[in-house]
Amino acid sequence: MVNPKVPRRPTLFYRPIQPSDLEILEQIHGDLFPIRYESEFFQNVVNGREIVSWAAVDRSRPNGKSDELVGFVTARIVLAKESEIADILRYDSSKSDQTLVYILTLGVVEAYRNCGIASSLIRKVIKYASSIPTCQAVYLHVISYNNPAIHLYQKMSFKCIRRLQGFYLINGQHYDSYLFVYYVNGGRSPCSPLELVTSMVGYMRSGFKTVAAKLYKNEDRKVPKWPKCKETHSLISTQNKRNLNAECGGCECV
Ligand SMILES: CC(C)(COP(=O)(O)OP(=O)(O)OC[C@H]1O[C@@H](n2cnc3c(N)ncnc32)[C@H](O)[C@@H]1OP(=O)(O)O)[C@@H](O)C(=O)NCCC(=O)NCCS
Predict the structure, then answer these.
(1) 218 lines ligand 1 (CB under 6 A)
(2) Which residue has its alpha carbon closest to ligand 1 atom 10?
(3) Could you tell me if residue 7 is inside a domain?
(4) Does the keyword tRNA processing belong to this entry (predicted)?
């Protein structure tokens, strides 16, 4: 589809996000998302601290803007057994290092939409995830009314596996989210009843071990790891300050 707002054919180029992108990255996040992100999140993105990212730039842009972001995706690796989708993965107790790639944020500035930029950025993430032997899937959350994004994920063969009620809390209002997954490296949800039971038992056992270890180490920080509401949710660090004014330390797609 051609976007009439792009005056000419863009010369799109993809590269990692770098420190010089800090200002524009913050600005675009502010423009596109209903949630304010902590500056720590942006620092981690531009410095590649536990976050991988890709930027889209238009090399044919005049006025010194040929390297300015027109789109971006940020993601991080999480341990499968500690993720909220551990129950829908094939559990292999001999592989405790199984991982997932979680998409934190994805956005394209309005004038560059429908040029295939988001699709290309997602393909970069999928390719990256596929290159990690332990990685089983790419997953993300999307707010339930974000039809363009939902359409995009469906078009890219992501599977919607869950609707999470009241997952987001934005300006005091609760919104549901959909959880989308794209399996890589042969990772897939358990399908036979036996696989399903084995997966659940393995998941519960690993969960029990984690809880027991935490109790033993007295590491309970009173902050739930996967809180229900986005405003209190941080994927970068569970030590991040909680902020009830719709700020987010490293959050997922909305
Ligand atoms: C969602 C978003 C990232 C898509 O970016 P994009 O670069 O325009 O996406 P692409 O060009 O790769 O593909 C867009 C697809 O979605 C479709 N689409 C775009 N706008 C749409 C709309 N309003 N309703 C339905 N579908 C829409 C396009 O038609 C295209 O599908 P097609 O190839 O079948 O026509 C972009 O709209 C955006 O940044 N939105 C604001 C931030 C956001 O919502 N991020 C995602 C959070 S999970």
Answers:
(1) no
(2) 116
(3) no
(4) no
Tell me the residue type at 170: I
Alpha-carbon separation of residue 92 from 44, 79, 85, 86, 221 (angstroms): 32, 13, 14, 11, 29
* Number of domains forming the structure of the chain: 1
Residues 6-31 have pLDDT tens digits of: 657 899 999 999 999 999 999 999 99
* Residue to mutate, 14, 104, 113, ligand 1, most ligand atoms under 8 Å from C-beta: 113
Helical axes 147-155 vs 117-130, angle rounded to 10° = 50
Q: Whose CA is closest to atom 34 on ligand 1?
A: 155
Give the domain CATH number at 125. Answer: 3.40.630.30
Say if 47 falls within a structural domain.
yes
Is residue 185 assigned to a domain?
yes
User: Cβ distance 101 to 76 under 8 Å?
Assistant: yes
Domain assignment present for residue 79? The answer is yes
Give CB contacts under 8 A, 24+ apart, made by 193-202: 195/90, 198/91, 199/87, 199/88, 199/89, 199/90, 199/91, 200/87, 202/91, 202/92, 202/93
Which residue's C-alpha comes closest to atom 9 of ligand 1? 118
* Buried/exposed 91-119: b ≥16 CB within 10 Å, e otherwise: beeeeeebbbbbbbbbbbbeebbebebbe
Per the structure, the complete domain to which residue 100 belongs is given by 12-248
Tell whether ligand 1 has an atom less than 6 A from the beta carbon of residue 104.
Answer: no
Q: What is the pLDDT of residues 64-112, one digit of tens each?
A: 999 999 999 999 999 999 999 988 887 666 677 999 999 999 999 999 9
